Amino acid sequence: MQYKGYLIDLDGTMYRGNHEIEGAKKFIHHLNTHAIPYLFITNNSTLTREAVVQKLASFGITTTIHHILTSAVATAKYIKGQNKQAACFIIGEVGLITAFEEAGLTITDQNCDYVIVGLDREITYDKLAKASLLIRQGAQFISTNSDAAIPTEAGLLPGNGSLTAAISTSTGVQPIFVGKPENIIMEEAMKLIGLDRDNVLMIGDNYETDILAGINANIDTLMVLTGFSTLEDLEAVTKKPTYIKKDLIEWMHVK
Amino acid sequence: MQYKGYLIDLDGTMYRGNHEIEGAKKFIHHLNTHAIPYLFITNNSTLTREAVVQKLASFGITTTIHHILTSAVATAKYIKGQNKQAACFIIGEVGLITAFEEAGLTITDQNCDYVIVGLDREITYDKLAKASLLIRQGAQFISTNSDAAIPTEAGLLPGNGSLTAAISTSTGVQPIFVGKPENIIMEEAMKLIGLDRDNVLMIGDNYETDILAGINANIDTLMVLTGFSTLEDLEAVTKKPTYIKKDLIEWMHVK
Known about the structure:
By secondary structure, the first copy, chain A, is an alpha/beta fold. In chain A, about 35% of the residues lie in helices and about 20% in strands.
């Protein structure tokens, strides 16, 4: 446990669907009691930070909204950093809308500087059409994350990468993606945690998002085998995680 | 006018949005009065053949449903030819639903053999999710056409290629496309018109759909400059249309 701070994935690392993951609660309790800086980083843009705190609480994991960085919040911070007065058209759920409201950005469907697309399970043709027209008129196209599919109790359902593909196909314009494995969310995370990148470890279960995000950001990585990726998945990749552990209990036993 | 039969595009060739195109009415009147075989071929899957006949009538063009091949009808015929008892999940509008009902195919969302996607301006996340799950369970993925965008009075709005991209991204499965420039709709057209391909001319305004459909099907092509593609668009292409004319009036003056 030789790092001064931790960036930690949620789904597959802290919980799996509605199931606890062994060691997660104990690990966060350790960080809390020793006042070790950490930040949960999730591509999920549909939940507010408050809702993430509540979800973690349901697994017995205690944290605060200041320890949560969703792709929604990272997107709002990124746009705010580019243009404080940005007029934004948003496709997305309460997590994304709330993040933009809290950032003091203008949400509108007229004369937009940005079109932001996050997972929206109330997507309509009118929303896709409006986004397409605004992008064709010159609005910059931003997507919270490129996840093609999301795991649910019913199976793998369309993720935000899927809705984003509808708009990029319609317009011929590729978006800027904010979420893991892209750098934008990681840069926002580094600002928030306030440590040098040598002192930070990125922990996650998904090689393609979490681990690549760490590798792209020059941050050491720990892949836990409690979620999506398996040891077999790593055989074909050239850039390996810094560490691979069965779970966070095994990590905590590292001296 | 040296061909025994004609395959004719609609939008940009017979009308443009709500506007008449010079010569279209006269050309079809000539075919009707001389009993020359012809078939309108459209990628639009949202309209029934009856609705297409009515739309043409609004421009003074007289025809019958037997002269209409929509991508909806071509898709239903294609699937019927593969599996008469096919169970089909359909995303689409009345034109697509009606084509499958008329073909006597089973429309359901359980244990499907096929998932068929056509433009649906009442698309929902649930429809995208259902399609994704069924394709992941092994249903064959068919799309009426790959048009990325459709011209409307409001501008270029998402076409069926855009909705299809959402599902192919979500599932990682590429569909079979039926509409122009693919061969499936052209093969259905050749069966319906009942002539050798040497005796048939494909007429359209869009190089990427109409003209390439003809070229792919080894049918002579006439590109009219009354719609989407321009002479400049042709500079970069290696496979040229057989003929290029300003409009159908110019074509009718060819001896």
